[in-house]
Amino acid sequence: MMHPISLIAPAKLNLNLYVKEKLENGYHTLESDICFLNLYDEISIKRSSLNNIKISDESTFFLKEETILKKTLNYFNSEFKNDHKFSITLKKNIPMGAGLGGGSSDSATLLLGLRHFYNSNPNNSKKITITKLREVGLKIGSDVPACIVGKSLRLSGIGEKLQKIYVAKNYKFLLIYPNKILSTRKVFNNFNFKKVKKLKPIYFNKIKIYNSLKFVSQSIEPEILNILNTLKSFKKIIAFGMSGSGSSCFGIFKSSQDFKNDKEFERLKTKKNYFIWHGNKKEFGYNRIIY
Q1: Which carries the bigger pLDDT value, residue 272 or residue 207?
Q2: Cβ contact 10:42 at 8 Å
Q3: Contact at 8 Å (CB) between 8 and 284?
Q4: d(CA 241, CA 14)
Q5: Is residue 119 within 8 Å of residue 141, measured between CB atoms?
Q6: For residue 194, what are the contacts with CB-CB under 8 A and spacing of at least 6?
Q7: pTM of the model
Q8: How many CA atoms, within 13 angstroms, populate the side-chain half-sphere of residue 276?
Q9: 41, 94 in Cβ contact below 8 A?
Q10: Residue 12 is a catalytic residue
Q11: Cis status of the peptide bond prior to 247, with omega within 30 of 0
């Protein structure tokens, strides 16, 4: 009998996002530089007599059910002919509909956890490779393969092409989520290539901070523009932008004191509906097991 395990599912931050072209199947090809933050959900997995997925009472954010975890478990069982049952508990700390890849990261981390159980079973002679796991992940969602890798990457295509990149460490990220859920599907359905505006580029070291979806997301949720204008007013900010399809926005600083000492930070903390987080990026890799 294998011991229960708990794993980290980190938030994904899109430092930039370029929408390239619309495919015949309705999907878009993308290019994006991403990193992962030390903000994460936790997934606990243990063997059980029945498959069961529940949300922990210790969650920061609550939802009735986590459908992507059910989808992930079904895909895994079907792909690898797995007949073992699992009790899965999700502690949700990443806001939903925020452009932070929480659902994709949860799915990726669950796949890694299920792979751990599968590969540790001496009766399974053929082990599951990371390459195969990424192939399964892509069937679940375009961001899932990158979230399996869990390191700073450049994504291209529909998420299947991954290249490791360097994102400088020791910088502080300030994350602001206005508690406004944006549907990725709705954002892309309203996206128009002709309405993408050219702006003066912002750089974080050699990485260009840019988002093709910023204007369409702002048109659906105007609070995004208010947050970006607030970030722009920080005196010592290095770069700022919107992650994914929104509505989370981020600022990058050399040190935490560079924003904590700014009057705008005090004003942000008075916003009762805002979720505000600050911390570091981190290279997680495949081993997310914390116990």
Answers
A1: 207
A2: no
A3: yes
A4: 9
A5: no
A6: none
A7: 0.94
A8: 17
A9: yes
A10: yes
A11: yes
Residue 1 has pLDDT above 70, yes or no: no
Task: Enter the tokens of residue 175.
Answer: 């994350």
| Helix (H), strand (E), coil (C) string for the chain | CCCCEEEEEEEEEECEEEEEEECCCCCEEEEEEEEEEEEEEEEEEEEECCCEEEECCCCCCCCCCCHHHHHHHHHHHHHHCCCCEEEEEEECCCCCCCCCCHHHHHHHHHHHHHHHHHHHCCCCCCCCCHHHHHHHHHHHCCCHHHHHHCCCEEEEECCCEEEECCCCCCCEEEEEECCCCCCHHHHHHCCCHHHCCCCCCEEECCEEEEECCHHHHHHHCCHHHHHHHHHHCCCCCCEEEECCCCCCEEEEECCCHHHHCCHHHHHHHCCCCCEEEEECECCCCCCCECC
Which region among 17-21, 239-243, 278-282 has the lowest average model confidence (pLDDT)?
17-21
Residue 83 designated active-site: no
| Active-site annotation holder among 12, 92, 172, 282 | 12
- Residues making up the chain, counted from first to last: 291
Given the residues 33, 41, 143, 258, the one annotated as active site: 143
